[in-house]
Every structure is written in structure tokens, then in C-alpha cells.
Amino acid sequence: MEQTIKKQDQKDTGSQITEGVIWQQLLLFFFPILFGTFFQQLYNTVDAIVVGRFVGKEALAAVGGPTGTLINLLVGFFVGLSSGATVIISQFYGAKREDKVSFAVHTSVAFSLTCGAAIMAVGILGAPYALALMGTPEDILEHAILYMRIYFLGTLPNLIYNMGAGILRAAGDSKRPLFFLITGCVTNIVLDVILVMICGMGVAGAAIATILSQTASSLFVLAVLTRTKEMYRLCLSKIRLDRRMLNRIIRIGLPAGLQSVMYSLSNVIIQSSVNSLGTDTIAAWTAYGKIDSVFWMIISAFGISVTTFVGQNYGAGKMDRVKKGIRQCLAMTFGSSVVLSFILYHFGFYVFEIFTSDAAVLKKGMEILRFLVPTFITYVTIEIYSGALRGIGDSWVPMIITMIGVCALRVLWILVAVPLRRDITTVVFSYPLTWSVTTVLFIIYFHRFSRLGKKKTLSIR
């Protein structure tokens, strides 16, 4: 393992994305992130498949419905915050400022440990109260509480992996995080088979398998960071919070964290509406969420790619390259969304059958899929423009736009429209409605008011 890490360090030394053909550089960065995100999503997807097939639809609804929404609320806030570290490190790395990179790395890891302890406590203690407030049906409540409490026991390794992978990606290394996720995913599958299918541990076995596999991924990423000779090397004795660097990270990352929270809170309200429609609908929504995650894997991979691309090139003062990269990334994301929408619309039923054979759940799931999949394209501009703006440190206005266009409008729709027509179509219409409005707002801000829309942009200090 140590020899492999050292060889990879030699290959990645000086690895940047400030040179070469732009679309090729974006794709070379995109694909490892995509596959990495795929394997990260596969953790919970495997859990859902195994418990759905071998425990029952109540367990399927518990593992992926209200629990997934609440987990995303807490963990998503940290991931948003950590994006500030990724932006800072990518900018300093592009500018070759080794001392600043080191400060940012050690502050980021210390920040992960602090947040991990807090999120673990909140998740374990607050699980039953949050699930009850969401109106989680009694037949899945016990399963959901058990799954959440075990899952949050693994918060520290989960956050350490996410931060460590972000550090590597900020330096242009998206391959090793992929390798570590594949290893963790294989571990998760093996443990799911042993703990759920063989030992009959139900949702507890699925949760234990997940946190053990996440621990394996975090150990790999720590091994790389502590053994590398690059400027982002992690020295355990230097892990501490540097106030100035932390303030800078939070200033950039907090809007993304708040944006994630607002997304999650609006999804909590949506999940509460779904919960009121019964276990079949909850199970169908859970299974759809796993299919739908394919789109989010692709869109987030492009978003991370453009953020890092913009960050490094902005740090290097190559603004013409920044703007060309944004345009090319936007075109590739639109094309990918159209192709994926066509495939899922026509062949999504066969994917649903992987999760469940229940006829009522399958029928409800296809109703959701056929309605939402054609609208994916309305979200593309939001992800790419907000990712590019984060790359230059512009996070607050995108957060405000998202708060108004997505979160506030989505909650308003659920509170006003759903009581008038209480069915799943009315609930999920909130997605394309809010995506379309927010896209218009982003286009106006990006081209008329943002620094990226102007002819000249200042470099980092």
C-alpha cells in the first residue's frame, strides 16, 4: 500500500488543470469524481436493495425515506461547509502558495473532527424526535430510529473521508478518492450479505456495514495525506484550528452549507407530505430516490469539476480559460442530462424491479419517475453556475438565490397546493417549478452582476 501511494504521489506531483485542452481536462477530472460519487451513493443503494428484498418494504422505506432526508440535512451542511476548504486549497494550490495550502489542510481536518463530534451527538439524540415530527408511520418508525442511530455513530470517519477527498481533488487528484470509495463499497456489499442476508440483522446490519466501510475509506485517505510529499501533506501534530484560515473557509463554505440545509429542510417538508400518503408511496419515493441519484451523481460531478477548474485557473490568473471552461462544462452537462432522461424514462421500470417486486410500489414509483425525469434539464444551469461562482469565492448571492428560488418557493408550494390536491404528482411538481424559477435568477445574476460576467476579474490575494 505504501509503495502504491508513493508511486501515485510521483505521478501527481504538480498535477494541475491550468494547462491543456479545456474539455479534456474537465472530463479527466469529471470521470473519477463521477465514479467516486457513484460508489458513494452505492453505499445506501446496496443497503436499500438488500433490506428491500430480504427484510421487507417497511425496512426499505425506513432506510431510504425519512432517514435519508435527515442524514442529508446534517451531513450535507458539513459537506457544504467543507466546500470552502476545497475552494481555498485549489486557489492557493494553483497560485503555488505552499504555506497557505498547509494551513488550510490542517485547519480543515481539525474542523472535520469538531463538526463530526457535534453531528454525531445531534443525530443519535435527536433521531426519534425528528422522525416523529416528520410524521413517520408507526410501521417503519422503529426501523428508522435504529438505522439512524447506528449510522451517526460513524459520522467521524464519514466527515474525515469527505474532507480528505476534497483536499485531494482541490489539488487535481480525483483518482485516489475513487479508489478508496470502490474499496469501501466492496466492503459494504460483503458486509451487507454477511450481516443482513446471512446473520439476519435487518436494518441494524445494513447500518453497521455502512459505517465500517466508510471507516475503511477514511483510513485510506488519511494514509495518503500523511505520507505524501506534496504541499498538502497532513502532519497529525499540526492539526489545529487556525482562526484566520477557518474564518476564510467558513466565509466561502457557509453559504454552501446553508444552501444544503435549506435544500434538506425543504425536502424534509416534502418527505413529510410523502409520509402522509402511506408506506407504498414512501417505499416508491425511496426507490425512485436511488434511481434519481444517477442524475445527481452526474450533475454534482460536473459541479465539483467546474469549481476546482475555476478555482485553480482563477488562482493562476487565467480568466479567459475560466470562462471557456464554464461554457464547455455547461454544454457537456446539458448533453448528459438529455441522454440520461431518455434512458430512465424508457427503461426505469427495470431498475425499479431491482428494489422491490411489490406491484403497488412499482406502479407508484413509475408515476413519479415518468413525471420528474423529463424535467432534469431545468436544474443544469443552477449547478454549473453556482459551482463556477464558488470557485472564485462568490457564495453568498448564489445561496440567497437558491433560498428564494428553490427553498422558499418549494415550501410555499407544499403548504398551499398540496392540501388542495393531496397526491404524489402535486408534491413532486415542486421540483421542476422551483428549478425553472431559480435557473432564470441564476442566468440574470451570472451574466449581469457577477464578477465572472464582467470583462475583468481580480485575482486572489
Number of strands: 0
Whole-angstrom Rg: 21 Å
Name the poorly predicted regions: 1-15, 457-461
Helix and strand pattern:
HHHHHHHHHHHHHHHHH
Structure explained in plain terms:
The chain is built from 17 helices and no strands. The protein is mostly helical and 461 residues long.
Secondary structure elements and pairings:
Layout: H1 2-12, H2 22-54, H3 57-64, H4 66-94, H5 98-133, H6 138-153, H7 155-170, H8 175-198, H9 202-227, H10 243-275, H11 279-315, H12 319-355, H13 359-372, H14 380-391, H15 396-416, H16 424-428, H17 430-448
Helix pairs in contact: 2-3, 2-8, 2-9, 2-11, 2-12, 3-4, 3-6, 3-11, 4-5, 4-7, 4-10, 4-11, 5-6, 5-7, 5-10, 6-9, 7-9, 8-9, 10-15, 11-12, 11-13, 11-14, 12-13, 12-14, 14-17, 15-17
What tags apply to this protein structure?
461 residues, disordered C terminus, 82% helix, 0% strand, globular, disordered N terminus, single chain
Q: Brief description of this entry?
A:
The chain is mainly alpha-helical. It has 17 helices and no strands.
